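note to self — DONT lose this again. spent like an hour looking for the file last time. sequence + predicted structure for the chain T wanted, 181 res
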Amino acid sequence: NVYRGPGRPECDQYQITMVFADGFVEPFSYKAAHNMFAVIPTGTEQEQRQWRWLKNAGRQLIADDIREFRDSHLEIDGRCEISGDPLTIENADVHHVGAGFGWMLLGFLREHCREHGLTGFDIEVIDTDNVGGKRFADEALCEAWVQYHCEVAQLQVLTREVHAQQHVGLARAPFMELFNA
């Protein structure tokens, strides 16, 4: 099945269905590959899968805020905050300044797990649609994440090329920590 992400041109984001060796089926987004499937290979398949779901849920919960931030920047300035190049809806990406989105989400979830005596497997993630959309089942956790992101995230609107450069050499978040009791 093919899906176009909200607020993006038709050629920007497509999803296909992945079938894993164990028979598990999961939607896969070409664009989101670096975000959702870029996991540290030392995690078990179940840890990697749960981390993808947690990241997907975290991203989806803030998607409207990210889109609003991008769109307001395009209306006000319309230039990449680093290169100064002109931005359009087609080439504008929102970047989490610093270590990145994965580290921010890991820190939030690590604290949540510690406070409640949980592991990452205990955080239930539910589907919101039939193309891979996710959210946390616990509404209070959803609200806490959105609030945390609003308070902590430092965002920039960059061209896709500059955004990709910002991630070169960054260490990936050690998500396996969430699954150790």
